[in-house]
UniProtKB/TrEMBL annotation:
Residues annotated as transmembrane: 242-265, 285-305, 341-364
The UniProt record lists the keyword DNA-binding: no
GO molecular function: calcium ion binding
InterPro entries, A to Z: EF-hand-dom_pair (IPR011992), EF_Hand_1_Ca_BS (IPR018247), EF_hand_dom (IPR002048), MCP (IPR002067), MCP_dom_sf (IPR023395), MCP_transmembrane (IPR018108)
Top-level taxon of origin: Eukaryota
One GO term (biological process): transmembrane transport
Segments annotated as Solcar repeats: 91-174, 184-271, 282-370
Organism in which the protein naturally occurs: Coffea arabica
One Pfam family recorded for the sequence: Mito_carr
Taxonomy of the source species: Eukaryota, Viridiplantae, Streptophyta, Embryophyta, Tracheophyta
Subcellular location: Mitochondrion inner membrane
Family: Belongs to the mitochondrial carrier (TC 2.A.29) family.
Listed name of the protein: Calcium-dependent mitochondrial ATP-magnesium/phosphate carrier protein 2 isoform X3
Keyword Coiled coil: no
Limits of the EF-hand domain: 24-59
Length: 374
């Protein structure tokens, strides 16, 4: 036959692809047929099929044809160009990682002084006070003292943020049945956000521990060890397991925090779009506002676990007052400091979290748009 009906062509091609072990959904198959049907008349002529294969390598199996189409369509600059699913998954993965990494690095650097102050207050077992802590940090290292550990902080937060956002977007697709833009509801976002936070935190936890040690390090000479020496000392003197000290309370804290933060942000953005902006896309100020509320809510809910984690991270193995575990931190904190001890540093933490969350989401949304992720 000199021509095929578009529907019959699709059915025939679908069978051929399936016989070669390639599964294509209806939309992808329709795009394939439309790509071959150059005059868009609903019919694939012999000439159109011939032209499609004209520059193709001599071994024109159906599997090779599909992969050829993927490559061709990726660089198609037509107005209706759509990246096929087989390639788009990998392209989107890289873009999400870039967007999340840039967002995390930007927000963490902007709030580094508040992060240093929060950590210093968290490890104090006596009555914590912000003004003396600020004076101590300034006396110890001047302006740069407030940025101690920021290098490793960015080195830690960039991949953590990248992994978290990427995992979150992928889990949303899984929960939504692999359908993009599927509304998975608040409960689905909580689950996706919590799991994404857990994956990201576990992946970068050793860097988080070294960062905490670096920020709280003190010695008689007043010199702070470099990153390599500090990491080596921990490995030699305390063993590899030391890099994961405090991981359990960290995960117990990050799962609800990430879940609440991400779910609340998307819910607030959705509500602002519906009730305030009347279906218009949220701008920078709305994104900042949503990030502020979601970040503060999540941080306050899990802050006690963050204090426990930080104290476990900061202690040295040979210290007489070293904690024996997470339960020991809880017991001794309640005994000597009361429940207020679990909220030391909360104010500077909120001062850090609020702008950090806002900046993170603002930069992330901006990066998503610039990378054509919607």
């Amino acid at each position: 036959m000199a021509a095929f009906c578009l529907r019959n062509s699709g059915m025939l091609l679908s069978r051929l692809f399936l016989s070669s072990g390639i599964e294509m959904d209806d939309d992808e198959l329709a795009r394939f047929v439309e790509h071959v049907d150059k005059d868009n008349n609903g019919i694939i002529t012999f000439e159109e099929w011939r032209d499609f294969l004209l520059l193709y390598p001599h071994e024109a199996t159906i599997e090779n044809i599909y992969h050829y189409w993927e490559r061709v369509y990726l660089v198609d600059i037509g107005e209706q160009a759509v990246i096929p699913e087989g390639i788009s998954k990998h392209v989107h993965a890289t873009k999400y990682l870039i967007a999340g990494g840039v967002a995390g690095a930007a927000s963490r650097t902007a709030t580094a002084p508040l992060d240093r102050l929060k950590v210093v207050l968290q490890v104090q077992t006596s009555r914590a006070s912000i003004v003396p802590a600020v004076k101590s940090i300034w006396k110890e290292g001047g302006l740069f003292g407030f940025f101690r550990g920021n290098g490793i902080n960015v080195f830690k937060v960039a991949p953590e943020s990248a992994i978290k956002f990427y995992t979150y977007e992928m889990l949303k697709n899984v929960i939504g049945g692999n359908k993009e833009h599927q509304d998975i509801g608040t409960s689905g976002r909580l689950v996706a956000g919590g799991l994404a936070g857990a994956v990201a935190q576990t992946a970068i936890y050793p860097m988080d521990l070294v960062k905490t040690r670096l920020q709280t390090y003190a010695c008689e000479s007043g010199k702070v060890p470099n990153l390599g020496k500090l990491s080596k000392d921990i490995l030699v003197q305390e063993g590899p397991r030391a890099f994961y000290r405090g991981l359990v309370p960290s995960l117990l804290g990050i799962i609800p925090y990430a879940g609440i933060d991400l779910a609340a942000y998307e819910k607030l953005k959705e509500m602002s779009k519906t009730y305030i902006l009347h279906d218009s896309e949220p701008g920078p100020f709305v994104q900042l506002g949503c990030g502020t509320i979601s970040g503060a809510l999540g941080a306050t809910c899990v802050y006690p676990l963050q204090v426990v984690r930080t104290r476990m991270q900061a202690q040295r193995y040979n210290s007489d007052a070293a904690y024996k575990g997470m339960s020991d931190v809880f017991r001794r904190t309640i005994k000597h400091e009361g429940f207020r001890g679990f909220y030391k540093g909360l104010f500077p933490n909120l001062l850090k979290v609020v702008p950090a969350a806002s900046i993170t989401y603002l930069v992330y949304e901006t990066m998503k748009k610039s990378l054509d992720l919607g």
